[in-house]
């Protein structure tokens, strides 16, 4: 095998930079009309036939023969057994990661997910009550890309939020179960788990069947069918973001060992060929060193074919005029993962406006964040960090406004509401306010 | 005219209750395939032709002739003039409402929208940075249902969040502008405003044109075309919820004047014929009094035809066995607006899990909340309060995780990440963690 990886070399000083940069970033989430139609049909079928439809599709797509949905449920005993048969080092790593992820999300809940209220001088109370969702569904991909860490990252924030029931679905093509995924479900406190996947699993969670309980929200990544199904059931249930390919952007001032940066770029590229790894750096000599590290380290990597294709097709090493310019370009990209590989990361952090997660300093490799630092690894991709956030406790909570207008408050508010309601031609609104006025009582 | 309004009378003690209740609640957000296709075409056309396409559709659908998009922009001077020519009582009501809405959302930002972080014992920093969206679009319906209060409720939380630019679109069919809507845009601090609407306005905001700037998120209600367009551009930009018909649920213990409750039911019903007004009460005699108030008050209402149709087709007066049972039924409905019309509302509030906004006590008419109490009137409808929240400052902010692993932290975290990454078959992830270990340096 003779892989080489030479990410595109761009420079912001080149006249062709804008065009080259846009071409490199281009990724289209275009939907396939064929997939959309098949997904619509599967959703309608599961809505109409329930369990029977789910069983049919599971046989057809996953090669799993089951007479009843009950056979496709994983028992708690099975999840526990999967955990207990793992090597001690894996059990301990799962538990340590879960503990840190839990602590972080508890801090998140405390900082931004508690109920609050205040009273006006006239005694009127205003606030918001924050409550957990009753029941959520977590989609966990099966087969090759089965990630136990994703089970932790989806289930733990739901658990911390106080969600009553966490229903996991994970396809097991031809019956192949991933012990680490089952063990992670045990550690994370999943309530029930079914070995179903695809659009049929999303439909079962969104509409409910005789066996699979209807949930309030579905989170977790999946293939094009899963993404299309989630988008289609949005509104019937809540969903998290539709994820695109994973990306890393490294802002480097040239002080981090180049091997470390090369390996961080690899760690994104190894996910899949569409993954994107970009380095922004004002130091041309350092960029050359990183390229040398890439060339040197690539042959050691078991997933070198994927890494090479990802870096060659979508990677870029970009020379900037300054770190400030690098920060500005980063804001245009709004990357999922943003490493500030600098001796002085807090100098640059305030300039960074849009990113899913910001990894500060040379010791903060993205992979530490992916598994166990604590923050969530489910992050907005494809520039959606411009308007969305990491998965968090807040995704498993909802808010209800609280309003208690005092008798005195009703006198002042009633006058205002009356004027505005008449202005909108809504006389019953006006009358409802006026009836509470003393002058009208 | 001879309108009568007799909402369905149900009792939880009846054997037919479950069936009757479900039939009454039934509302389908079914999408019209014809509308979906036309919207898809409009979006594609605006993406391809930009301003020219927007101008064409505005001529065709709104009967507005304009040679250039610039003619469809409302200047700040025009917004200001609209405000200044209003009667003093309307100016003052708009300003008072805006002030209260702003105070509430400032409290909301402080309670749940600030950045936070903490350090582990080993010096590792974890947290979240909260930042405003750069630019948002606000859709304001035009024509008959033009609500200036919606301008305040969408623009003010964006403003409080710190959004840089707020772009309003409002269709003005045949050129008819609503002075209160323009004045509200002035009071709320809208940055730019265009007299465009429909799917073409959503497309212009989502993709950007030569004249209309591309935004990061689109909020605000609209007709079926607008809803379909928003759902379709979700992912390219953020969107708020897709709204269904408005609803009120009144939980009454029989202590509020029945006229007040009747008028509160009217104030929901007058929105449109699909709006839903439901009373839950354990006191049969009180229910009869409310029905008598309905019959007495209806003839006075200018919008009595709409109110009557809404109450007859979708309204219900439900006799429950107890207030506790009423609370449980309310949780099943997860209403948009929930009035707890009781002498002791705080006794029941803890039992209420799902609702967009909870109005406590007899003086808190929904209409006070709609206009000026302070909380947002953009609320989750059709049971989506089970998983979503009122529009708020948080809808105009996004979060970036912050992670700074210390050198010491990298030693413990690196071991965990290495084990888990190998378990997932992602060796570059493992190596990136291992490279930071002293034993490997």
TrEMBL record, chains A, B:
<comment type="function">
    <text>Catalyzes the sequential NAD-dependent oxidations of L-histidinol to L-histidinaldehyde and then to L-histidine.</text>
</comment>
<keyword id="KW-0862">Zinc</keyword>
<comment type="pathway">
    <text>Amino-acid biosynthesis; L-histidine biosynthesis; L-histidine from 5-phospho-alpha-D-ribose 1-diphosphate: step 9/9.</text>
</comment>
<feature type="binding site">
    <location>
        <position position="268"/>
    </location>
    <ligand>
        <name>substrate</name>
    </ligand>
</feature>
<comment type="similarity">
    <text>Belongs to the histidinol dehydrogenase family.</text>
</comment>
<feature type="binding site">
    <location>
        <position position="246"/>
    </location>
    <ligand>
        <name>substrate</name>
    </ligand>
</feature>
<feature type="binding site">
    <location>
        <position position="271"/>
    </location>
    <ligand>
        <name>substrate</name>
    </ligand>
</feature>
<feature type="binding site">
    <location>
        <position position="200"/>
    </location>
    <ligand>
        <name>NAD(+)</name>
    </ligand>
</feature>
<feature type="binding site">
    <location>
        <position position="223"/>
    </location>
    <ligand>
        <name>NAD(+)</name>
    </ligand>
</feature>
<feature type="active site" description="Proton acceptor">
    <location>
        <position position="336"/>
    </location>
</feature>
<feature type="binding site">
    <location>
        <position position="429"/>
    </location>
    <ligand>
        <name>Zn(2+)</name>
    </ligand>
</feature>
<keyword id="KW-0479">Metal-binding</keyword>
<dbReference type="Pfam" id="PF00815">
    <property type="entry name" value="Histidinol_dh"/>
</dbReference>
<protein>
    <recommendedName>
        <fullName>Histidinol dehydrogenase</fullName>
        <ecNumber>1.1.1.23</ecNumber>
    </recommendedName>
</protein>
<dbReference type="GO" id="GO:0008270">
    <property type="term" value="F:zinc ion binding"/>
</dbReference>
<feature type="active site" description="Proton acceptor">
    <location>
        <position position="337"/>
    </location>
</feature>
<feature type="binding site">
    <location>
        <position position="429"/>
    </location>
    <ligand>
        <name>substrate</name>
    </ligand>
</feature>
<dbReference type="GO" id="GO:0000105">
    <property type="term" value="P:L-histidine biosynthetic process"/>
</dbReference>
<feature type="binding site">
    <location>
        <position position="271"/>
    </location>
    <ligand>
        <name>Zn(2+)</name>
    </ligand>
</feature>
<dbReference type="InterPro" id="IPR016161">
    <property type="entry name" value="Ald_DH/histidinol_DH"/>
</dbReference>
<dbReference type="GO" id="GO:0005829">
    <property type="term" value="C:cytosol"/>
</dbReference>
<dbReference type="InterPro" id="IPR012131">
    <property type="entry name" value="Hstdl_DH"/>
</dbReference>
<feature type="binding site">
    <location>
        <position position="139"/>
    </location>
    <ligand>
        <name>NAD(+)</name>
    </ligand>
</feature>
<keyword id="KW-0560">Oxidoreductase</keyword>
<feature type="binding site">
    <location>
        <position position="424"/>
    </location>
    <ligand>
        <name>substrate</name>
    </ligand>
</feature>
<dbReference type="InterPro" id="IPR022695">
    <property type="entry name" value="Histidinol_DH_monofunct"/>
</dbReference>
<dbReference type="InterPro" id="IPR001692">
    <property type="entry name" value="Histidinol_DH_CS"/>
</dbReference>
<dbReference type="GO" id="GO:0051287">
    <property type="term" value="F:NAD binding"/>
</dbReference>
<feature type="binding site">
    <location>
        <position position="268"/>
    </location>
    <ligand>
        <name>Zn(2+)</name>
    </ligand>
</feature>
<feature type="binding site">
    <location>
        <position position="370"/>
    </location>
    <ligand>
        <name>substrate</name>
    </ligand>
</feature>
<feature type="binding site">
    <location>
        <position position="337"/>
    </location>
    <ligand>
        <name>substrate</name>
    </ligand>
</feature>
<keyword id="KW-0028">Amino-acid biosynthesis</keyword>
<dbReference type="GO" id="GO:0004399">
    <property type="term" value="F:histidinol dehydrogenase activity"/>
</dbReference>
<feature type="binding site">
    <location>
        <position position="370"/>
    </location>
    <ligand>
        <name>Zn(2+)</name>
    </ligand>
</feature>
<keyword id="KW-0520">NAD</keyword>
<keyword id="KW-0368">Histidine biosynthesis</keyword>
